[in-house]
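Methylenetetrahydrofolate reductase: structure, please.
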Amino acid sequence: MSDTPTTTAPRLLDDFSLEMTGKDVAHLEEARGAIPPGTRINITFLGNEPPELRLSAARAAARLGFVPVPHLSARRLRSRAETAEFLAALREAGAAEEVFVVGGDPAVPQGPYADALSLLRSGLLQEYGVRHVGVSGYPEGHPAIGEPVLWSAIEEKAAALREQGLAGGVITQFGFDVEPVLRWVEDLRERGVDLPVRVGVPGPAGVRRLLSYATRFGVGTGAGIARKYGFSLTNLMGTAGPDRFVRALAERYDAGRHGDLGLHFYTFGGIGATADWVAAQT
Ligand SMILES: NC(=O)C1=CN([C@@H]2O[C@H](COP(=O)(O)OP(=O)(O)OC[C@H]3O[C@@H](n4cnc5c(N)ncnc54)[C@H](O)[C@@H]3O)[C@@H](O)[C@H]2O)C=CC1
Ligand SMILES: Nc1nc(=O)c2c([nH]1)NC[C@@H]1CN(c3ccc(C(=O)N[C@@H](CCC(=O)O)C(=O)O)cc3)CN21
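Here you go.
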């Protein structure tokens, strides 16, 4: 129904998720009133944040009435015992039901899990009460991982989730261009993966910051993409929000072809700005 974008857009935003780091707890507290109760709040697993900081973020999200979705970065986990300890603490915090499992940026795994799949297959997650696992998707590829590897990884993870009796979903790497996202989702569906997909996009933020994260994670920002998204590569002082991106996604989203789609906002230090932006859309 591409001729009724205004009725489709709120649907995509009905059950959005937000991503924060351990350092954003005060921002979450400030923004709480602008975020619908029960919203999923993902907690990034940064290498430079100690587990206690991530745990305090998970606790804060639960205490404020949201659903914490802590991330586990497989390659950063140094042992099965360390992983079990983190999961036990999450369970204690009421934050273990939903997690997001990602490979992890270290070029060499720091412990027994070389990828998300090995953690999924370890049996540990269920032991600590995990019921729903998010995995990542890369509509524009990944700078260090080839396309065929990415495709087999996501197919194997979807199969492993089924085998392990875990519910799941996909969250895509943030991007600035809707076209590759929808093409990728169609490809995913043709490969038989029917997991719900949350399309990752940055919340409103300064252009300089967006570009620096994009560079850091190998996300494309060509001049054409920038224009479509609504920022200029030469005006680094400006800010840019996902207005056009979300509008374009809503216009082109066809549930018959794309299955279950939602939105995931990478807030990059601005959870309040993102919450306000979403609230202003409805
Ligand atoms: N999308 C996101 O929000 C985030 C993505 N990442 C990064 O994305 C990458 C892939 O994660 P997943 O999609 O979960 O992959 P995965 O764990 O499912 O692995 C897929 C394949 O790529 C290989 N691989 C994984 N990480 C790698 C790395 N850092 N360098 C070289 N090869 C690697 C694995 O051995 C496996 O063959 C990782 O580098 C991860 O840190 C990290 C944090 C958040
Ligand atoms: N390949 C890959 N690796 C990642 O680690 C990664 C992705 N992709 N995609 C996006 C998510 C979100 N990520 C991040 C990483 C760092 C901050 C961060 O450092 N935030 C600052 C505040 C904002 C700022 O000052 O820029 C912080 O201090 O927490 C946030 C999200 C990491 N993520």
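Notes: The two ends are 19 Å apart (CA to CA).
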